[in-house]
Amino acid sequence: MQTVDEVDLCFPQLINASCRKTAMPLAVSTITYIMLTFIGLLTVILNLLVIVSISHFRQLHTPTNILLLSLGISDFLVGFLIFFQTSAIDGCWFLGDFMCLLYYVLEYIITSASIGTMVLISVDRYVAICDPMHYRTKVSEKRVKMCVCACWGGSTLCHCLLLRHNLKQPGSLKSCIGECVILINNISSIIDVTVSFIGPVIVVVVLYLRIFVAVITQVRAMRARTAAGPQQSSVKVNKSEMKAARTLGVVIVVFLLCLCPYFCTVVTGVDTLLSASSDAFVILLFYFNSCLNPLIYAFFYPWFRKSIKLIFTLQILKPGSSDFKLM
Q1: Contact indicator for 315, 323 with CB cutoff of 8 Å
Q2: Which residues, listed in sequence order, are joined to residue 20 by a DSSP beta bridge?
């Protein structure tokens, strides 16, 4: 018969070597498990729709959609990482040292690539809105593909170097069996946070603010030209101005709200996602961003709704379906 102490162990048969389970209230662990499972499934499904849509239909093979495809792939992979997280809600890691290291390496690479793709999307939108006359010459499919490859390659190289000490001997840093930890020194952590979060956030915010200013300037110019027109024209201009402000505001606020808490915990030294019950809300927000990305960047496009209909009705299985007109 197991004692109370043995029940609290990750591996009851290893009393002297096993880690203890996280002291998390049952209600919190249950809600966290349900939410993570739901977010994981929704993230995989939504991003799979984005991947299939852009990959299958030739009309969608544009520079902007290539960036959306990269974002969809990174967020699709995040959806699978969420299922690893659900297995470790109680603070116990049962998948071995190699899978622990692989989990962290993939998490760092995919998250960094996802944020980098967001930066590329903001640059693409900036050129399209602020310099539309030269957009086709500055932003070509070839250049975008090269930027996407550089984003993923740079993220992989950077984080393999960052975690190089952990790659040599997986599991050598754990203090007990059932623990999943990695070691990142303070200097590397500061560099990672700066390159993977602070820098991209500054770029995204600055570019979107400049886009917002450009939109407002164009709206005011339209208003000045239509000042002598009927009152209805002025109302339409106001609606356009509010829509631009609201859309850009949602993009920035959602991005910051979902990722800021996680990177704040990294800065303060709480760099493990597998041990503290107080990190449950941070985990949910962190992963929820990957679920929201296809909704923010793709779901509001009419072509995405049309492609979803074609996918669910199995129209994409018909010969020549890749040439269907969606726009």
Answers
A1: no
A2: 9
- Reduced to 3 states, what is the DSSP secondary structure of residue 175? coil
pLDDT digits (tens, 9 = 90+) for 226-258: 665 554 444 444 454 455 445 556 766 777 777
Neighbouring residues of 30: CB distance < 8 A, sequence distance ≥ 6: none
For residue 144, give the nearest of 167, 168, 164, 117 by alpha carbon: 117
Please tell me the predicted confidence (pLDDT) of residue 276: 44
Query: What is the DSSP code string of 144-170?
Result: HHHHHHHHHHHHHHHHHHHTHHHHHST
Please say whether the beta carbons of 177 and 18 come within 8 A.
yes
What CATH number should be reported for the domain whose range is 26-222+234-320?
A: 1.20.1070.10
How far is Cα 289 from Cα 284, in angstroms, rounded to an integer? 9
Evaluate whether 286 touches 261 at the Cβ level (below 8 Å).
Answer: yes
DSSP conformational letter for 297: I
- Tokens 């390496």, located at residue: 105
Please enumerate in sequence order all residues whose Cβ is within 8 A of that of 200, keeping only pairs 6 or more positions apart, or say none. 115, 116, 118, 119
Task: Give the pLDDT score at 1.
Answer: 44
pTM for this model (two decimals): 0.80
Domain ranges of the chain: 26-222+234-320
